[in-house]
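STRUCTURE:
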């Protein structure tokens, strides 16, 4: 058989614990517990900070979805019984459509597939 590859960790001497009087006794144990507690608190604080950031972004997305749903309702109510819109789009409809396009770009959707663009 082929010789085994050298093990890099085999030549490293084990780390010897360093004794100090500050880590000895009950006071040392209390310091160690306090240090671990402060690390845990920092970790929890960071997690809640990340969570609050996520909630803020979720609020923005919910507001955007609500606005888009309102636009969708407006556009479906503007469609007549025969499936076609009115004579010509009003400036309000054009502004709403431009706003929708801006929101879609914000979401990274440059050319969304819609029922109108895909057909039936």
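SEQUENCE:
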């Amino acid at each position: 058989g082929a010789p085994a590859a050298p093990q890099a960790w085999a030549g490293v001497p084990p780390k010897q614990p360093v004794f100090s009087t500050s880590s000895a006794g009950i006071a040392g144990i209390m310091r160690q517990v306090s240090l671990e507690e402060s690390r845990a608190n920092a970790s929890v604080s960071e997690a809640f900070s990340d969570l609050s950031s996520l909630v803020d972004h979720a609020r923005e997305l919910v507001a955007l979805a609500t606005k888009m749903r309102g636009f969708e309702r407006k556009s479906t109510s503007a469609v007549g019984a025969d499936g076609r819109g009115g004579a010509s789009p009003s400036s309000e409809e054009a502004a709403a459509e431009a706003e929708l396009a801006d929101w879609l770009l914000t979401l990274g959707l440059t050319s969304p597939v819609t029922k109108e663009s895909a057909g039936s």
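REMARK: Residues 28-79+93-107 form one domain.
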